[in-house]
Amino acid sequence: MPRRLASSLSDEVLEHVFSFIQSDKDRNVVSAVCKSWYEIERWCRRKIFVGNCYAVSPKMVIRRFPQVRSIELKGKPHFADFNLVPDGWGGYVLQWITEMAGAYPWLDEIRLKRMVVTDESLELIAKSFKDFKVLVLASCEGFSTDGLAAIAASCKNLRELDLRESEVDDSSVHWLSHFPETYTSMVSLNISCLGSGEVSFSALERLVSRCPNLRSLKLNRAVPLDKTANILRLAPQLVEFSTCTYSAELRSDVFSNLAGAFSNCKELRSLSGFWDVVPDYLPAIYSVCSRLTSLNLSYATIQSPDLIKLASHCPSLQHLLVLDYTEDSGLEALASNSKDLQELRVFPSDPFDAEPNASLTEQGLVAVSLGCPKLQSVLYFCRRMSNAALVTIAQNRPNLTRFRLCIIEPKTADYLTGEPFGVGFGAIVEHCKDLIRLSLSGLLTDCVFEYIGKYAKKLEMLSVAFAGDSDLGLHHVLSGCESLRKLEIRDCPFGDKALLTNAAKLETMRSLWMSSCSVSFEACKLLSQKMPRLNVEVIDERGPPDSRPENYTVDKLYIYRSVAGPRFDMPPFVWTKDEDLALRLSP
Amino acid sequence: MGRPTSSSSSIDSPNHFAFSSTASSQRDLTTDLRLGLSISIAPPFVREQWPPMKAAVAEEEHECNSSTFYVKVYMEGIPIGRKLDLLAHESYYDLIRTLEHMFHTNIIWAEAEMDRDHYEKYHVLTYEDKEGDWMMVGDVPWEMFLSAVRRLKISKC
């Protein structure tokens, strides 16, 4: 744009134009055009996403963006889901809430993932934001039903309360009853993580009956089966629903009541829950199956024949989560019935058993890759795999964007040839040019990393475990993967050399996690000195790394870029290069 | 890398430590290998937190950590079931005693003796194994039963 024209457009016009630009990436580009665009843009940015809550401080965000309405924050690294991050590591949201309470009175959306949220934080949210609408706490912890009661009591315009996969302490408060009788605005409620004591069924029924805009309801498993029908009759407009426990033996009156209730729900598109479902009850949902786009059966211990029958009723499925009880036969049926399938996740029913308890092999995945032309996202746990199958999958489905394979026994080789999986995963990264997420497993040498570095140019997140022979593996990834943002590694022989050689790369990424690898504390200190805008955290509960022998390798290492400098809430088992103990304050 | 692949993947997982710590000191190791049970060999490294699954999915399925193993128990005719911690029991006799107390009946299992004239006072104890089959309780060694059992059912004779 010619300079004359750029300066002649008024601020109001530019602001109006910018309001059509929603994506963060585009907004960031816009703000880099010139100083005046930076100024205009920062005053009208309404939505902020902070992928690592320690990458920036709340004060810095508030200083740059004074009028934010919606914020999303992520705390602990992904491997915290698998208990690799010790309790007390960090991710506390209180300071953010405190700062925003003063600066953003009109904040109406808070979305948090893997953060520690206290009742105090929830009470502060309830008190500070008059028009609060959306609260999503995904995989969070540290709060109880007391905090939920505060939210329920004060947030008159709350539309969304989603506690997915969070850990909530039961304070015995009937928090649902704290929604006043005048409250009618709920659109989306997800309380599937709550225990049995934490939901008063009658309060829930009253809430559902007075919220006509309720579209998504995910209940916890303690709600009994006969009550499900009541809820559905109160909310036939539901689009998403999570059922409760089915484990009683079939009773025909309960069944027909349930089937009747489901048949009223013409808008239902997504079903989940199904804990302990008794297969005899499944036909109760057949009336909605033809419209279902999303089905989560990952808690349902039903066997392949019942799953095949169910799948045959669901031709519109786009997202399916299921246990390996579905077996290859179930996936073959899926491949022929569900041509719109975009996402498949198959979980192991018996993850800790050496022997397979279900006949699920690589064949199931190959069938789906062949039969489902829109398949983009795969998460697959299995016990055997071959390079040939991976090559076939890659050739069938070059449109894959997310491919996460977990061969359950670490370092398992190709069961046909005994070879490592370099060729197979190499084919995946070569053919799937838009691949943004990849998880590796099985027997892997440095060879696979060479392929990844060479081909995976759009890859943003890579997960590696029990793989590689030497630092060269890590070096290939860090030097080759141009779009890499998150790298998480465990139990690999990667050490100092690759890290120090590629130190600059680390500042272009959000974070790097390495646990049970071969990195020395010396290298960590060196890296930290070289790269002042990286926080290099050594997580080691065994004691001060400085006091350990020369050849000691750190237990866990978390490196992330930050403009906020070292954090002030590090627990005693996190070691950095700074000897300044004043930095160690309790949260 | 030198480790045998058969029956070794579950060595390090927490819920199998409970089975092996009492069993392996008394039993023949080759029997364990043949039966496919997990045994406790000191590994060169402990493979914790594998496979990478979120706690909710893994634990819901097993409800089994190193100190408890709860299974559901249903009695025929009663829709509401009970839950029982199998690891709180040392043997079949222990388990039968608890069940007889919990359900106020006499339990028939592989080693029970029954008064055939009064069969209506007895219930048969069966369990669902990993293949989905219902088997009479008591035919296999206790530890093997623990690794196979999914749930229990008490049926009328």
TrEMBL record, chain A:
Top-level taxonomic group: Eukaryota
This protein's name: F-box domain-containing protein
InterPro entries: COI1_F-box, F-box-like_dom_sf, F-box_dom, Leu-rich_rpt, Leu-rich_rpt_Cys-con_subtyp, LRR_dom_sf, Transp_inhibit
Species per Swiss-Prot/TrEMBL record: Gossypium darwinii (Darwin's cotton)
GO CC terms of this entry: nucleus; SCF ubiquitin ligase complex
Entry's localization field: Nucleus
GO process annotations (BP): auxin-activated signaling pathway; pollen maturation; SCF-dependent proteasomal ubiquitin-dependent protein catabolic process
Pathway: Protein modification; protein ubiquitination
Entry-linked Pfam families: F-box_5, LRR_6, Transp_inhibit
Record keywords: Auxin signaling pathway, Developmental protein, Nucleus, Ubl conjugation pathway
Main location: nucleus
Keyword Nucleus: yes
One MF term in the entry's GO annotations: auxin binding
Gene3D superfamilies on file: 1.20.1280.50, Ribonuclease Inhibitor (3.80.10.10)
Keyword Nucleus (UniProt): yes
Domain F-box per the UniProt entry, residue ranges: 9-50
TrEMBL record, chain B:
InterPro entries named in the record: AUX/IAA_dom, AUX_IAA, PB1-like
Keyword GTP-binding applies: no
GO process terms (BP): auxin-activated signaling pathway; regulation of DNA-templated transcription
Keyword terms, alphabetized: Auxin signaling pathway, Nucleus, Repressor, Transcription, Transcription regulation
Gene3D superfamilies in alphabetical order: Phosphatidylinositol 3-kinase Catalytic Subunit, Chain A, domain 1 (3.10.20.90)
Keyword Coiled coil attributed: no
GO CC terms, sorted: nucleus
Cited Pfam families: AUX_IAA
Residue span(s) of domain PB1: 68-157
Subcellular location: Nucleus
Known partners and oligomeric status: Homodimers and heterodimers.
Family the entry assigns: Belongs to the Aux/IAA family.
Task of the protein: Aux/IAA proteins are short-lived transcriptional factors that function as repressors of early auxin response genes at low auxin concentrations.
The protein's name: Auxin-responsive protein
